[in-house]
TrEMBL record, chain A:
Cellular component GO terms, alphabetical: plasma membrane
Origin superkingdom: Bacteria
Organism, scientific name: Algoriphagus marincola HL-49
Record CDD domains: ABC_MJ0796_LolCDE_FtsE
Listed name of the protein: ABC2-type transport system ATPase component
Family matches, as SUPFAM superfamilies: P-loop containing nucleoside triphosphate hydrolases
Pfam assignment, any one: ABC_tran
Nucleotide-binding among keywords: yes
Molecular function via GO: ATP binding; ATP hydrolysis activity; transmembrane transporter activity
Matching Gene3D superfamilies: P-loop containing nucleotide triphosphate hydrolases
TrEMBL record, chain B:
Compartment(s) of residence: Cell membrane
Residues of the MacB-like periplasmic core domain: 18-203
Pfam families registered for this protein in UniProt: FtsX (PF02687), MacB_PCD (PF12704)
Top-rank taxon, per record: Bacteria
Name under which the protein is recorded: ABC2-type transport system permease component
Length: 210, 457
């Protein structure tokens, strides 16, 4: 098993406790996390990414119990092994497309993918030196996917990556993530309530507020 | 990419705010640089130019003016003193050595100083070519005069009345260059040195020449003014009785007597030999003992028609007066620096609000809290480092402009492009401002909670 969560419990300050269902994924596998708004999907994703630490339970990625790493090591581990795609692209505005990728490369000591090659695969070759605020929504989201993939992560996390994209771009983005996950043999977890995504990925769990 | 490049990108991403802050800081630091350079070089130059001169004796007037005109050759001379009084003073047991000087003429704005060879030894000059003057009208040029005027050994030129350019030329006797000095880095560089006799004879010639031209109407009206003006000038010292006598003599014996004295060797030390009542402008005095410092000035100021002034005393008085101005400038500089520090703080703090997302994203792609802290500090520090470099550059440029504009004045020969170790402190000082200004923003970047930041829309 590449990735496993066990007995994850968490509560935001002053709110009821979430008890999340266990997840386990192998290399190249994909999973959707579905659920109503406010049910705790983003919270679960943050726990998996090590951005929040659970009250109890464990998250293990490729043998590393990431909730036991200290803050600095966790950041480094996340940079090298977990690629995150946000709902909005959140690119760094002062940098151009390629520099955004190279920034992610800087924080990792792993040998990642070739940036130009990756941009080509995502059909962004001609944008590699464009300022990021001149990109279209779909292009920007693809750049953020490229940034999540540049270090060959073992786990790819995406939080509603398609919610602001049109049908065509939404399908393309999900397909890209699946293809890349297969290529670099990473596990893929997508949080969504977008039915267009459900048509592409069948494996899912549902988060319910208990 | 690295953190340094990233911080640089963020700085250039908001060029106006960055530019303004850099400029403010640079201006403040430029003022400090100029003050440092001037203080260092000016005081050094001032003491160096006055080294070996304990006292200056000249006509009554402002003591500061006396010092400025006869030691630094910048202000107008206060007038002349009778040579016999100067000679009497030089024989005092309190005096070790005196150097007489006759001032008041210029060549293209460079002052012509009539003196003796002791003046050359006082500044321990070296000759780059030629030798010291031996006869009347032979001159030695300071290095800067030679360079700017292009005069070489054997060249001749005509001096002008007065101490500034544009005064009318003496047309009778040309000066001849017999020596050029090496650059000394002191006042001698911008002087034309010659014998006292040269200055005297130039002015002796002047009188008949002017009387001849009084037939022209315009000159006629000016005659009074001319006479008056001449009393301020050097070798005009001859009183009127004497002048008349002189003219008679010249009229009679113009051919032999007059020309002969032009080829007599001049006095190399002490006073020129003459049986006439001549004047000199000032006397540079060296004390024989410390006692002289107490007695001599008082004696001269109360018992004679002359005035004595001490270079060190007058210059420290001048610096005291300038001190107020310098303090005002320093104050201004610190206000500018403080404002720029505040500006940097505000710029970083504001940009941080917009960048909470960016910082969270950086964390999400693997940056540690500590690296974000460094990033913000780097921004503040590179901003102030730029400001420091620009400030130092501005300061030196300003000084070089000042020195270039003031070729014949007191700022001449200020070295604009020598660097002081104190300038390193300016850089350190600027960096400290940068660290202080970015401390709070950096700390708040350090504490940004990423999960909250990323999930907030
Ligand atoms: N930082 C926080 N502090 C306090 N409560 C929070 C915080 N973040 C989320 N919550 C609360 O926790 C619950 C779950 O939030 P979460 O963002 O995980 O929901 P979600 O399933 O992602 O919803 P959506 O589909 O709308 O994105 C919500 O009720 C939310 O108000
Ligand atoms: Mg959510």
């Amino acid at each position: 098993m590449l990735f496993q969560t066990k007995d994850l419990k968490f509560s935001h300050p002053g709110q009821k406790e979430y008890h999340f269902q266990d997840i386990s994924l192998d290399r190249g596998e994909s999973l959707l996390i579905l659920g109503k708004s406010g049910s705790g999907k983003t919270t679960l994703l943050n726990l998996i990414a090590g951005l929040l630490s659970p009250h109890s339970g464990s998250v293990v990625l490729d043998g590393t119990a990431i909730n036991q790493l200290d803050s600095g090591k966790m950041d480094r581990f996340r940079g090298e092994n977990i690629g995150i795609v946000f709902q909005k692209p959140h690119l760094l505005a002062p940098l151009d497309v390629k520099e955004n990728l190279m920034m992610a490369r800087y924080f990792s000591s792993k040998k990642g993918q070739d940036a130009d090659e990756l941009l080509k695969e995502l059909e962004l070759s001609n944008k590699s030196h464009s300022p990021v605020n001149q990109l279209s929504e779909g292009e920007a989201q693809r750049v953020s996917i490229a940034r999540a993939l540049i270090n060959r992560p073992k786990l790819i996390l995406a939080d509603e990556p398609t919610s602001s994209l049109d049908d065509e771009n939404a399908e393309r983005v999900v397909k890209l993530m699946q293809d890349q996950a297969t290529k670099i043999q990473a596990a893929l977890i997508i949080v969504t309530h977008d039915h267009r995504v459900k048509e592409q990925i069948s494996n899912y769990i549902e988060v319910k507020s208990v | 990419m690295n953190l340094f490049k990233l911080s640089w990108k963020y700085l250039t991403f908001r060029p106006l705010s960055t530019g303004l802050n850099v400029l403010l800081l640079a201006l403040g630091l430029a003022i400090i640089t100029v003050l440092l350079l001037i203080q260092d070089q000016f005081e050094k130059k001032m003491t160096q130019d006055a080294a070996g001169i304990d006292l200056v004796v000249g006509a009554k007037g402002s003591p500061l003016q006396l010092i400025l005109s006869s030691v630094y050759h910048v202000d107008f001379p206060t007038g002349n003193i009778p040579m016999n009084e100067a000679v009497r003073l030089s024989r005092s047991r309190l005096v070790k050595q005196t150097i007489p000087m006759a001032l008041g003429d210029n060549y293209q704005g460079y002052r012509i100083v009539g003196t003796n060879h002791d003046y050359l030894s006082l500044y321990e000059v070296g000759f780059s070519s030629g030798k010291a003057w031996e006869e009347p009208f032979e001159v030695v040029l300071g290095a800067m005069v030679a360079e700017k005027s292009g005069l070489k050994l054997g060249d001749t030129f005509t001096g002008s009345h007065g101490i500034s350019v544009g005064s009318h030329d003496h047309d009778h006797h040309d000066f001849r260059v017999v020596g050029v000095l090496e650059p000394e880095g002191n006042v001698v560089d911008r002087l034309v040195l010659t014998s006292i006799e040269s200055v005297w004879y130039t002015h002796d010639e002047e009188e008949p020449a002017e009387e001849e031209t009084t037939s022209e109407p315009s000159e006629d009206q000016d005659t009074d003014a001319h006479d008056h003006e001449h009393q301020n000038e050097v070798a005009e010292h001859a009183d009127h009785d004497h002048e008349d006598h002189d003219h008679e003599e010249e009229d009679q014996g113009h051919d032999h007597d007059h020309d002969a004295k032009f080829h007599h060797p001049v006095a190399k030390s002490g006073f020129p030999k003459t049986d006439q009542d001549r004047d000199v402008t000032t006397l540079l005095v060296q004390y024989r003992s410390p006692m002289a410092a107490v007695q001599l000035p008082r004696m001269i100021n109360s018992n004679t028609n002359m005035q004595a002034a001490s270079p060190s005393f007058e210059m420290s008085r001048l610096f005291e007066l300038l001190g107020v101005g310098i303090q005002v400038l320093e104050g201004l500089a610190f206000v500018l620096i403080a404002i720029s520090g505040l500006g940097i703080f505000i710029a970083l703090y504001n940009s941080l609000k917009e960048r909470r997302y960016d910082l969270a994203v950086l964390r999400a792609i693997g940056a540690s809290k500590f690296q974000l802290l460094i990033l913000i500090f780097l921004e503040g520090i590179s901003l102030t480092f730029l400001g420091a470099l620009l400030g130092i550059l501005l300061g030196h440029s300003f000084l070089s402009i000042l020195a270039a504009q003031n070729e014949q004045g007191i700022a001449a020969g200020l070295e604009a492009w020598t660097f002081l170790s104190a300038e390193l402190w300016i850089v350190i000082y600027a960096l400290t401002v940068g660290v202080l200004a970015s401390a709070i923003p950096a700390w708040s970047a350090y504490q940004t909670s990423i999960a909250n930041q990323l999930t907030r829309k």
